[in-house]
Specification:
CATH class of the largest domain: Alpha Beta
Strand order of the largest sheet: 3-4-5-6-7-8-9-10
Structural class: alpha/beta
Mean pLDDT: 91
Oligomer: single chain
Helix content: 25-40%
CATH architecture of the largest domain: 4-Layer Sandwich
Bound molecules: zinc ion
Radius of gyration: 19 Å
Number of strands: 15
Length: 327
Amino acid sequence: MVIEYSAGREGTVKIIAIFAIAITIPQVRAADDAFAVTQGKAYKFEKVADGVYYASGGLGSNNVVIVNDQDVVLVDDGTTPAAARALLQDIKLITTRPVKTVINTHFHYDHTDGNSIFPPDVEIIGHEYVRTAILTFNVLDREPYTTSSKNLATTDDIRRQLTEIKPTPPNTTYASKMTLHRGGREIQLLFLGRGHTGGDTFVYLPKERIVCTGDEDEGARLAYMGDGLFDEWIATLEALKKLDFTLVLPGHGRPFHEKALITAFQSYLRDVVAKVTDLRRQGATPDQAAVSVDLTSHSKDFPDIKGPGADLRGVRRIYEWLDENHK
Ligand SMILES: [Zn+2]
């Protein structure tokens, strides 16, 4: 079965739906969506498998809502307490079951700053690095929050929401693997190595053959690199590709199927590091390198690349990482 749909900025994508057995055929199909859609006040839910919804449209990362026999497991919870409350309100459109577990894919504000609204009996799970980062990094006074919050603060409402943020760490941590059994569903939390940050979790549903990648891989969108560990990141993505999945739900962007998109991002990472390393050798400052580094050969995989240049925070991080690794 081939489903064709327009994936917003990313253009029209053809999907070979080899996962057809795992998903319910959409009853309601919005013009632009391959999946059945439930539209809430703030969030749009796309039903990607039985009880598994991809939520987008709120303030912060995209989320995954996993509805089990008795409860709901949520992957990431948005940029602000208000965003998380809006998400919980909208989730009522798809289930009456309570959110009992939240998984933080990594420590960045747009995935974790809804944590503070949950009562203590809700388990918030993250890699142990996520807890350390939120407790010790002064996260509201460093990137990516400092620049992003300035860019986000375009309305009084959002400015008010941002003042309400209380960085709250996971109350349950793990080091390499954790498995949740919820009714008939198995949910694996996998740390496959450092990359986008020092502790990112892949949420893997083996039966559904779905993996949630947070910001380790965002498909046709370039992930933030300001906390990257570049050679390890490429290796972690190699480990990711070894999992058996047919659908990827990223923390930003759109769901996708092709492992080739992960390979394309590995290739981008290799190239941006090599080219920034060269520019540094030639005496360029990070600011100069961020303007001139030419990655336009990757624009067919990453349509956001419109000309030379790369995100300054990522380029600064490559300089720092080269220093750390004596390269
Ligand atoms: Zn991130």
